[in-house]
C-alpha cells in the first residue's frame, strides 16, 4: 500500500511543484482580484465535482466485473450530461434574477463553469476506473500532465494575454488533458454502454442508491462547509481580499488537496479490496498511512508558521502581506486536513453513511453559524479566518477518530480486547 501511495504522491508532488514554480510569475502578472475571481470559480467547482454524478462514480469501485460495471459507467456518463444541463439552467436563472448577488458580480463567464463540469465528469469516470485497476502509475502521470498543461497555459497567457479568465482557462485545459490521459487504454470500458437499457440503469441506480440518498447529501454539506468561507469572503468583502485568501489556497491548500486526493484514491482501493477479501489489515494500514502523512506534513507546517511573511514577500512579490498572515493562521488546519483527508472516504466505503452524514451536518452547521454571527458582529477578516481554522482542526480530529473506530479489528486486536479466561 505504501508503495502505491508514494507512486501517486510523487506524481502529485511533481505536478504541484510545476504549479508552484509558475506562481511567482502569476502573482506578479495578475492582481489579487484575478485570484479572487479564480477562488470563487474553484469554490463553485468543488460543489459541482461532488454533484455531477450524484456520487455514483464511487459505485465504479464497488460494482462487479462485467455488465454491472458497464451499466454503472453508462449511468455516470448520463448523469454528467443531465446535471450539467440542469446546473447551467439554474445558473442562468440566478444570473437573470440577480440573486445571489455575488453571481452577478463574477469576474468570469458562466460558460466556464458548464464546460468544466463536463471535463470533471469525463475525468472522474476514468480516474475511478484507474483506481479500480490499481493503475497508480497512470494516475500519477495524468496528474503531472495536468500540472504541466495548467502551468504552461497560465504562464503563456500571463505573458501574451493576461486576461481576467486566464487562470480559469488554464485550469480547464489541465482538467481536459487529465481526463484524456486517464482514458488512454480504458476506452474499451465504454464499449457496451450504448447497449445499456433504461431497465439496466434503474437496476444499478437502485443497487447503489445509498450513494445518492445518503452519501451525496453528506458530501454536499461537507463541501459547502469547505467553500463557505472563501465564497463569503468574496461576497462580504471584495475580490482583492478573496484573492489574498485564494493565493494561500493555491500555494498551500491546492497542493494539500491534490496530495489528499492521491492518497485517498489508494486508500479507497486498498480498503475496498480488504473488505472484499477479508484480509483484516484495514486498521494497521490506517495507522501506517496516518503516521506517514503526519511525518510528511510536520516540517512544512512548522516552516509555514514561522517563515510565511518572509517567504510570501520573497516568492510572490509585494502586495501579498495579508496572504502571508492567512497562511500562518491556516497552517494547523492544513496539517490536520492533510492527515484526515487521506482517509476521508473510509466511512463511505465502510457503508457508514449515516455517521459520515452526521459529521458533515455538524461541520456545515458550525461554519454556517460562524458566518451568521461574524458579519453582524463586524468581525475583521483575520478574526473570521482564525475561527475558520479552529473549526477545521476540530472536525479533522473528529473525522480521524470516527474513521478509525469504524474499521474492523484485526484478529490480534480482537484477541487483545478479550479478557483473559
From TrEMBL:
Q: Give the protein name, as stated in the record.
A: Putative membrane protein
Annotated transmembrane regions:
38-60, 72-97, 109-130, 211-235, 289-317, 329-350, 357-374, 386-407
Coiled-coil regions in this chain?
Answer: none
Where's it found, cell-wise? Cell membrane
UniProt keyword Transmembrane helix, yes or no:
yes
Source organism per entry reads Sphingopyxis fribergensis
Q: Which InterPro entries match?
A: Poly_Biosynth_Transport
UniProt topology in membrane: Multi-pass membrane protein
Q: What keywords are assigned to this protein? A: Cell membrane, Membrane, Transmembrane, Transmembrane helix
Give the chief site where it resides: membrane
For this UniProt entry, what's an example GO CC term? plasma membrane
